[in-house]
Design a protein that fits this description.
By secondary structure, this protein is mainly alpha-helical. It is about 65% helix and about 0% strand. The chain has 36 helices and 2 strands. It has a two-stranded parallel ribbon with strand order 1-2. It is elongated, with a radius of gyration of 46 Å.
C-alpha cells in the first residue's frame, strides 16, 4: 500500500481510503483533529476484533464491515452534506465491502468472507439522486410497429361488416407513438408502441388520415342515421380515445410547415370536426390554430381552415359563435393593417368569410356589429372635435377603412333580413363624414375608397345614398389645367393607397388617375341608378357641374372622357323621361313605382348597357395588372415584313437611284440626324453620302445577285430578331 503524508481534506476526491475513514471517525466521536502526519504501520488485519473508538485505523483491513456500515449510517444523519459529497466523488469508498478484498487482501478466502458479509450495496444507493432518475426512466415498450402491422390494421379499419373498438384504439395508440417520435427530442416512446423509421411514420399517418374517420363513423353507426355522435350508443367507449387522437392531431398541425401536408391534414380535420365540436376544450384549441391558418396561410390553406372553423362553429353554435365572431374580427383587423397588391386577395377573402360567419345568427351578430360601428363613430368624433394628428391618424388608416368595407358588405348581404337594417344609416353617416374630415388633394385616394364603399352599399341594400356630390366636387375644386412639374410613365394606382405624397401630386400621372377614378365611379353609380324614376332629377346638378368642367378644362384627354360620360347620362335621362311620360299612376303609389322600375331594369337602359361593356374591358385590364404580364402576353410579337418582289425592288431602285437595303442601319440614320441638328452648315457628310451612292451604283450587278440570293434564307429562317437575346442588348 502507498503511504500518504498529506493532510485530510474533505474537498479532494483523490485522497486515500484511510484518510477519509479517519475524517468519518473524527466526525462521529467529535474529537479534536490529530496531527497532520499519519502513523506508518504494517499491522496485519484483525478481522475478529472490532476497533475501539479511540483507535485510528491505518487501512481498510483494520475495520469490520458491519461497524463501518454503522458509522456511515451515523455519518449520513450527523453530516448529510459530507455524505453526499462522498457519494458523488468516491462511490468506491461507500462500496468498500465489494472491492476492499481486491485492493488489500492477499488471500482469496478473505475476499470471499468480505463478499458474504456485505453482499448488496442497495441500501446506500437507494437515496442517491442518480438512482432516483434511473428508476423513473422510460417505461418498457411492448412492441415496435412494422409495415406489416400497419397493413393489418388498415385492412381491419376497412372491414365493411364491423369495425372493432380494439382496432380503433390500437390505431390511435400507434398515432400517438408516431406523434411522440415527431415531437420529442430523442423520439423515445412512453406508450405501448414505438415508431421507428420514416416509412413506418408515414404509413401510420396515412392510415389514420384515410381510413380512421370512416371507421369511427361505422363503429358509432353514424353512416345511416347521420345524427350527433354524442347521441350514439358507443360514444362513451370511444370518448377518451377520441380526445387523445384529436389532441395529437392538433399538435401535428402546429408542427407542420409544408403547404401540401397542411392541406391534407386540414381536410382530415374537416372530416373530424364533428367530433371536435363534442369537446369544448379541444374545439377552442383547434379554433385558435385554425384562425392563424385562416389569416396568414396560403390560399388553399386559408380556405380549408375557414371551412373547418365554419363546421366546428355550426355544430356548437350556441357555445362557440359569440367567441368565434369576436376572435375572427380582431384577427381581421390585425392582418389588414398593411395593404399591397399581394395582400389584397387575402384581405378580401377574410372579409367575405367574415360576412358568412356573421350571417349565421343575425341576432347574435347585431350586438357585435353595433359595438364595432359605435367604436368607429367614437374615433371619428374624437378626430373632428380634437384637431390633432393622432386623432386624425386613428381614422385615416387601412384598419379603419377595411372595417367600413366589412360592415358595408355585411349590411348589403343581409339586406333581405330586418335585423341589421337599422345600422345602415349610422354606417353611411360615418363614411361620408370620414370623407369630409380632411377634404384635401392628398386624401383623394381615401375619398375614392369611401365612395366605392357607399356605391356598393347602395347597390346591395337598394337604398339611395347621395354619392354624386363627393365625386363632382373633385372636378370643380382641383385645377386640372395646372402644369405638372414631374413626368410619370403611367398613372398612379390608387387601389393600395390612402394618402399621396407631395411629390406624387406634382406628377402628370396623378391627374390621369384622378380622372380615371372619377369616370369609373360616376359611370358605376349612374348605371346603378339608371332605372329609377327620378334619374333625370338625380343627375341634374352633376350634369351642370360636368358641363362647367368641360368649359374650363383645356386638356383634351380629360374632356374627351367626361364628354363621353355626359352624353351617356343625358341619353339615359331622355330615355327615362320618355318612359315616365307613359305612366298613368300617382307618384305616391310606391308599389306601382317599384314595379315600374323593376320593369325598366329588366328591359335594360342605355347607360346600363354601356357600363356592362365597359366593365368587361376594365376587368381584363385589372387582371393584367395583378398577374404577371409575361404570362398573359406569352411570346413576344414577331415583326412580319412584306415579301419583296422583283418589280418592287426595281421601282425602289428607280426612286432612290440605288439598291434597296433590306435592313438599313439605325446607327447611320441616327448619326446623320444628330449631326444635322447640331450643325446646319455640314456639307462634308453630304458629299460623303454622294460618294457612297456612286460606289453603290458601280457595284449594282453584284448587289442584285446578293439580294436575289438572300431572299430565300430570309423566308426560311423567319425574322432576324429571334437570333438576338435580351442579354446581348
Amino acid at each position: 500500500m502507498k503511504k500518504n503524508k498529506a493532510p485530510v481534506e474533505a474537498e479532494s476526491s483523490e485522497n486515500s481510503d484511510s484518510e477519509e475513514l479517519e475524517s468519518e471517525q473524527e466526525l462521529e466521536s467529535e474529537q479534536e483533529p490529530e496531527s497532520d502526519q499519519e502513523p506508518e504501520s504494517e499491522q496485519e488485519p484483525e478481522s475478529d476484533q472490532e476497533p475501539e473508538s479511540e483507535q485510528e485505523p491505518d487501512s481498510e483491513e483494520d475495520l469490520d464491515p458491519k461497524t463501518h456500515k454503522k458509522s456511515l449510517e451515523k455519518l449520513k444523519k450527523t453530516d448529510p452534506d459530507f455524505y453526499n459529497f462522498l457519494e458523488e466523488n468516491d462511490e468506491n469508498l461507500l462500496n468498500f465491502d465489494v472491492e476492499s478484498g481486491d485492493d488489500a487482501s492477499d488471500k482469496e478466502d478473505d475476499d470471499n468472507d468480505d463478499d458474504e458479509k456485505v453482499h448488496k450495496p442497495g441500501p446506500l444507493r437507494a437515496d442517491s439522486d442518480e438512482s432516483d432518475f434511473e428508476d423513473e426512466d422510460a417505461k418498457p415498450v411492448q412492441g415496435k410497429i412494422t409495415l406489416k402491422m400497419v397493413a393489418q390494421w388498415q385492412a381491419e379499419l376497412q372491414n365493411e361488416v364491423k369495425v372493432k373498438l380494439t382496432t380503433i384504439t390500437t390505431v390511435i395508440k400507434a398515432f400517438n407513438a408516431a406523434m411522440v417520435r415527431a415531437t420529442s427530442e430523442d423520439g423515445a416512446s412512453t406508450g405501448e408502441y414505438k415508431v421507428e423509421g420514416s416509412s413506418v411514420f408515414n404509413a401510420v399517418i396515412q392510415m389514420c388520415v384515410l381510413y380512421l374517420p370512416g371507421a369511427i363513423r361505422k363503429y358509432l353507426g353514424m353512416e345511416q342515421s347521420g345524427k350527433d355522435p354524442q347521441k350514439c350508443k358507443h360514444f362513451i367507449k370511444i370518448k377518451t380515445h377520441l380526445i387523445s387522437y384529436l389532441s395529437d392531431l392538433l399538435k401535428l398541425l402546429g408542427g407542420v410547415t409544408s403547404e401540401n401536408i397542411l392541406t391534407v391534414l386540414l381536410k382530415h380535420l374537416h372530416q373530424m370536426s364533428v367530433y371536435v365540436a363534442c369537446f369544448i376544450r379541444i374545439a377552442k384549441q383547434a379554433l385558435k390554430k385554425l384562425l392563424t391558418f385562416w389569416s396568414t396561410g396560403e390560399e388553399t390553406v386559408r380556405v380549408l381552415a375557414f371551412l373547418c372553423i365554419l363546421r366546428i362553429t355550426r355544430n356548437q353554435q350556441s357555445a362557440l359563435l359569440d367567441q368565434v365572431l369576436k376572435a375572427m374580427y380582431l384577427t381581421y383587423v390585425k392582418n389588414c393593417k398593411f395593404v399591397s397588391p399581394s395582400t389584397w386577395p387575402g384581405i378580401n377573402f377574410m372579409r367575405r368569410s367574415l360576412v358568412e360567419m356573421f350571417s349565421l345568427d343575425l341576432n347574435v351578430s347585431y350586438q357585435h356589429v353595433f359595438l364595432y360601428i359605435r367604436q368607429l363613430a367614437i374615433h371619428l368624433r374624437n378626430a373632428i372635435v380634437v384637431q390633432k394628428i393622432e386623432n386624425r391618424q386613428a381614422v385615416y388608416n387601412w384598419q379603419y377603412v377595411n372595417s367600413l368595407h366589412l360592415w358595408a358588405d355585411l349590411l348589403g348581404a343581409t339586406s333581405n333580413k330586418p335585423q341589421l337594417q337599422p345600422l345602415i344609416y349610422p354606417l353611411v353617416m360615418i363614411t361620408t363624414n370620414t370623407i369630409k374630415l380632411v377634404p384635401t388633394h392628398q386624401y383623394y385616394p381615401l375619398r375614392f375608397h369611401c365612395v366605392e364603399i357607399l356605391i356598393n352599399l347602395s347597390k346591395e341594400s337598394n337604398n339611395f345614398v347621395p354619392v354624386l356630390p363627393f365625386l363632382v366636387e373633385v372636378l370643380t375644386s382641383f385645377d386640372f389645367n395646372k402644369k405638372h412639374k414631374k413626368v410619370s410613365m403611367k398613372p398612379l394606382d390608387f387601389s393600395c393607397i390612402l394618402r399621396l405624397a407631395k411629390s406624387q401630386l406634382m406628377e402628370n400621372g396623378f391627374k390621369d388617375s384622378v380622372i380615371e377614378r372619377i369616370y369609373a365611379l360616376l359611370l358605376e353609380y349612374t348605371a346603378n341608378e339608371s332605372h329609377t324614376i327620378a334619374f333625370p332629377d338625380l343627375t341634374l346638378l352633376a350634369v351642370m357641374q360636368i358641363k362647367q368642367f368641360l368649359k374650363t378644362c383645356s386638356v383634351s384627354n380629360y374632356t374627351k372622357k367626361m364628354r363621353q360620360l355626359l352624353e351617356k347620362i343625358e341619353e339615359n335621362s331622355k330615355f327615362i323621361e320618355r318612359e315616365r311620360a307613359k305612366i298613368n299612376f300617382s307618384l305616391s303609389d310606391e308599389k306601382m313605382i317599384v314595379a315600374w322600375e323593376t320593369n325598366i331594369r329588366t328591359k335594360g337602359t342605355p347607360l346600363q348597357t354601356f357600363y356592362e361593356n365597359w366593365s368587361k374591358i376594365n376587368k381584363i385590364q385589372k387582371r393584367k395588372k395583378i398577374t404577371k404580364n409575361d404570362e398573359i402576353a406569352g411570346e413576344l410579337p414577331k415583326i412580319k415584313r412584306p415579301k419583296l418582289t422583283d418589280e418592287a425592288i426595281q421601282n425602289a431602285q428607280k426612286e432612290n437611284k440605288g439598291p434597296v437595303e433590306l435592313f438599313p442601319s439605325d446607327d447611320e440614320d441616327e448619326g446623320d440626324h444628330f449631326k444635322a441638328e447640331d450643325d446646319d452648315d455640314t456639307p462634308a457628310p453630304k458629299a460623303k453620302k454622294v460618294k457612297k451612292k456612286e460606289k453603290k451604283e458601280k457595284k449594282k450587278p453584284t448587289k442584285k445577285k446578293a439580294m436575289e440570293v438572300d431572299e430565300e434564307p430570309v423566308e426560311d429562317k423567319g425574322d432576324i430578331v429571334q437570333e438576338f437575346s435580351v442579354s446581348d442588348w
